[in-house]
Amino acid sequence: MPGVTSVTFHPLFQDIKTDLQATLDYLQGFMPPEALALAEAGTFSLATPGKMVRPAMVHLMWQALTCTPSTESVVKLAAATELIHLATLLHDDVLDESDLRRGNPTVRQQFGNRIAILGGDWLLAKASETLASLGRVDLVDLYAKVLAELCDGEVLQQSLAFEPIADISWDTYLQKTHKKTASLYVTACHATALLAECDPIVVEEAKAYGAHFGLAFQLQDDMLDYTGNPAVTGKPVLDDIRNGLANAPLLLGYQNPEHRKSLAAALEAIYAEIKQPETDETGLTVACERLKQLLENGDALDQTQECINTYCQQAKQVLSRWPDSPARTCLTQLAAENAKRPR
Ligand code: FPP
Ligand code: MG
Predict the structure, then answer these.
(1) Cα separation of 277 and 296, whole Å?
(2) Could you tell me if 93 and 44 are in contact, meaning their C-beta atoms sit under 8 angstroms apart?
(3) How far is the CA of 180 from the centre of ligand 1 (A)?
(4) Cα of 88 from ligand 1 centre, angstroms
(5) CA 98 to ligand 1: nearest atom
(6) Residue 175 CA to ligand 1 centre (angstroms)
(7) What residues pair up with 101 in beta bridges, in sequence order?
(8) pLDDT score of 279
(9) The pLDDT of residue 1
(10) pLDDT tens string 109-135
(11) pTM higher than the cut 0.85
């Protein structure tokens, strides 16, 4: 597969840029499939890397746990994790009928849904091959389980879409978020700790870091639905709500008895607009703006931010039990990034 143009990594990943480049080189070393459209879709997905947060977490976790440089096996673990992430995005864009991702046309938009699904399957196959090459059945088992968990989380989310907000508990939201978003971080950290032959207590700490990080990451993404600049996020404001997804600020806002009634009414007004056969975009925008105002006037966004801060703090606390190292500092900063109020 042709190589990518040089990639600029996040400034936090300065110390591991060689490891991330090795991960990208590994991904781009795959033989493309015979089918031309699939090969193009594969090249396209692998040549437009995102922030590489998951591979970075694998490298940083390994270096923090072992105080040694990343090995070829670590590069492969990082690559397998990114492959699974990319596969979920290809499939997710089909499910969400999304045409833009990271400011670029999605695979489904460029090549159609069939190729996007098959492209996702191809990436999953490459992830399995990569994991198998590590010769560790325990790691293959972990990743097989996370694939099921990701599907489960997505289906749980779909089952909650457009449901009355009163029927969605915070616990259910956390369960969905853990499966759909945090689980891949947990698995990446868990697998890295197993590869590093850590004691069971440290393995649990690594998993806890991944879980707290993943929850904070999703909550921040939920906040962006209200506070994000569409020119930066590439998504319209209130995209979750327009898709019938009650996210963290809404659920936390609803827990306040004073705001409950008005929030539920504003949400129902949005859902009613969406369900109209000929949805008038102006009516929907007004209804969305009303909900946004209610959340901004109440304490929902502050509460979400507090929740994010708590998860970030918990992630950092786990790390404080490990020996000091540049990689540990970087993992701490990575967790702190999530706590910055998104714009
Ligand atoms: C992005 O969600 C999607 C995910 C975090 C996971 C999606 C999971 C699946 C499609 C099922 C499992 C798939 C495989 C290949 C095992 P989003 O739509 O909330 O965010 P976005 O804005 O990035 O699209
Ligand atoms: Mg999506």
Answers:
(1) 30
(2) no
(3) 7
(4) 5
(5) 24
(6) 15
(7) 104
(8) 67
(9) 55
(10) 999 999 999 999 999 999 999 999 999
(11) yes
- Report residues whose beta carbon is within 6 angstroms of any ligand 1 atom: 87-88, 91-92, 95-96, 98, 120, 124, 147, 150-151, 154, 180-181
The set of residues, in sequence order, having a beta carbon less than 8 Å from that of 188 and lying 6+ positions away, is 54, 57, 58, 61, 77, 78, 81, 210
Mutation pick for ligand 1 pocket among 118, 121, 142, 154 (CB with most ligand atoms within 8 Å): 154
Q: What's the pLDDT score for residue 343?
A: 42
Can you say how many angstroms the Cα of residue 208 is from the centroid of all Cα atoms in its chain? 16
CA of residue 91 to ligand 2 center, whole Å: 9
| Cβ atoms 330, 15 nearer than 8 A | yes
168's CB contacts (< 8 A; 6+ apart) are 160, 246, 251
What are the residue ranges in the chain where pLDDT is below 50?
Answer: 342-343
Tokens of 9: 């990594």
| Residue 309 to residue 93: CA distance in whole angstroms | 30
Residues 6 or more apart in contact with residue 287 via CB below 8 angstroms: 266, 269, 270, 273
Nearest CA to 207 out of 20, 327, 57, 339 is that of 57
For residue 245, what pLDDT is reported? 93
